[in-house]
Design brief:
With about 160 residues, the chain is mainly alpha-helical. It has helices at about 1-20, 45-55, 70-80, 85-95, 145-165, and strands at about 60-65, 95-100, 115-120. The protein contains five helices and three strands; from the N terminus they run ααβααββα. Pfam families: Thioredoxin_7.
């Protein structure tokens, strides 16, 4: 009986470690800057810092606007943080910033201030207005059902960066 329990315990531990994305550099200490959007990602603290990292590391920036008490933001956060493809791609190829407040840069709210809103900025500090969601009245909004579109847009931001440089 002890042997069976030991085997079951080992299988549970192995399956739980395989299921979650772990960065190449190993498990990282969770940051409070993630606010639950991806504890293993390295998040920039401010928009200015994110722009600097983007330019100096030649990586695109993903800016995520949300509110802690917004049900749409909370629903997207759950799907976003549990999606291994998103977490892996952002960890390896992007600078990431999540904000619970608006910035003074009007380029980050081209069609208004709403949440959740995700924009991409290339290393030349150009906001990628051409990479947007499926809604005409909230062009940079994503909902839980739009996760495949978001993955596609993440890939587009990454590929276009390489094609443009």
């Amino acid at each position: 009986m002890k042997a069976v329990l030991s085997v079951v315990l080992v299988l549970v531990v192995i399956s739980s470690t395989i299921a979650k994305y772990i960065p190449k550099s190993g498990k990282r200490i969770p940051q409070t800057l993630s606010r639950g959007w991806g504890d293993q990602l390295i998040w920039a603290q401010t928009y200015e810092e994110a722009l600097y990292w983007s330019r100096s590391r030649n990586k695109p920036l993903m800016v995520l606007f949300h509110l802690e008490d917004c049900p749409h933001s909370q629903a997207l956060k759950k799907v976003f943080s549990e999606n291994n493809e998103i977490q892996k791609s952002l960890d390896e190829d992007f600078i990431v910033l999540n904000l619970v407040y608006e910035t003074t840069d009007k380029h980050l709210s081209p069609d208004g201030q709403y949440v959740p809103r995700i924009l991409f900025v290339d290393p030349s500090m150009t906001v990628r207005a051409d990479i947007n969601g499926r809604y005409s009245n909230r062009m940079y909004a994503y909902e839980t059902g739009d996760i495949n579109l978001l993955i596609s847009n993440i890939q587009k931001a990454k590929k276009l960066l390489k094609a443009e440089l």
